[in-house]
Amino acid sequence: MTLTESNTLAEKALEQLQSVILGKELQLKLAMACLLARGHLMIEDVPGVGKTTLAHALAATLGLDFVRVQFTSDLLPSDVVGATVYERNEGHFRFHRGPIFTQILLADEINRATPKTQSALLEAMEERQVSMDGQTHSLPEPFFVIATQNPVEQIGTFPLPESQLDRFLLTITLGYPDPRAERELLLGEDRREMIGSLAPVLRPDTLQEAQRRASAVHVSGALVDYVQALLKATREHSEFQAGLSPRAALGLMAVSRAWAWLSGRSSVRPEDVQAVFPALAVHRLILRATGQPHRESVLALLRNTPIP
Question: Rounded distance, CA 106 to CA 122, Å?
């Protein structure tokens, strides 16, 4: 598969997603860049704006196995990763895999589960494996977690700790559709029926090839200087509790490469970094005054950091 062919397939995948999720081109491109960068995606918004639909459409478009787990307060870690059960007829213990053993896992309303259950995803998201009773079980490739989260002020939510949030490469919000998109949504075909009729545009092997090509996009020394200037600004900013971690810095490089590749470029430009930076930083940079993220503060930092 040539560079042009893989870019064309990625463009077709985005076009198909845009036919289902109307008026959200930026968010869909960020979701695709997140997957190409081998990260995980958080979608934070009020119920009913299409978070679950986006996950279903992405899995159908990319031809990947998909499992949805509804996170609730009584969900146990074993309900997600699996459990070791004694098989009486066979006379030994056997590990029964949980729903996490899939290519796209939708952790729906993740912040309605207890911190203990939330933490069951930590090893899987970072190391792409599950450890149980001294044995390691590898997860399928590609492995992509999409978590949806309701606003923390809603009843029955458990805020995700910083260590969990840092495992998510990007956070996006969908918001309400604009009037034109909403009218098309009201008069058009049911979205769930549309997802059932979607044909895969990519296969797992071609997606993995696209991931390799995205990771090979050139980054100049001057671009690294700009990234380091942004990192330094987050760490020295008096409003934030803490700056971006080395994990976040590596993620910023990876998703900037993926964004440039989706844009048909062979090298990363400052505008690629600027396009993905808010989605990468907003859930990591917490204000000292409120203990909450603040998108406008992140955008102000981005505007005020000059390109070297």
Answer: 15
Domain co-membership, 126 together with 107: yes
DSSP 91-160: TEEEEEE-TTSSSEEEEETGGGS-HHHHGGGHHHHHHSEEEETTEEEEPPSS-EEEEEE--TTSTT--PP
Of the pLDDT bands very low, low, confident and very high (cuts 50, 70, 90), residue 256 is very high
pLDDT, tens digit (0-9, with 9 covering 90-100), for 104-134 = 999 998 888 888 888 888 888 989 999 887 7
**Same domain assignment for residues 221 and 179:** no
Residue with tokens 């977690």: 145
Q: How many domains does the chain have?
A: 2
**Rounded to an integer, what is the distance from CA 47 to the centroid of its chain?**
18
The angle formed by the CA atoms of residues 65, 164 and 10, to the nearest 5 degrees, is: 40
Helices (H), the chain: 3-20, 25-36, 51-62, 78-81, 115-118, 122-127, 162-165, 179-187, 191-196, 204-215, 221-236, 246-262, 270-281, 295-304
CA dist list (Å): 133 to 78, 84, 126, 143, 250:
12, 8, 19, 22, 31
Amino acid in position 236: E
**Span 54-67, pLDDT tens digits:** 888 999 999 899 99
Claim to verify: residue 139 and residue 271 sit in the same structural domain: no
Same domain, 176 and 30: yes
Give me the domain span that covers residue 261.
217-308
Query: How far is residue 93's CA from residue 135's CA, in Å, rounded to a whole number?
Result: 12
Instruction: Give residue 2's pLDDT band: very low, low, confident or very high (50, 70, 90).
Output: low
Half-sphere exposure at residue 158, Cβ-oriented, CA atoms within 13 angstroms = 17
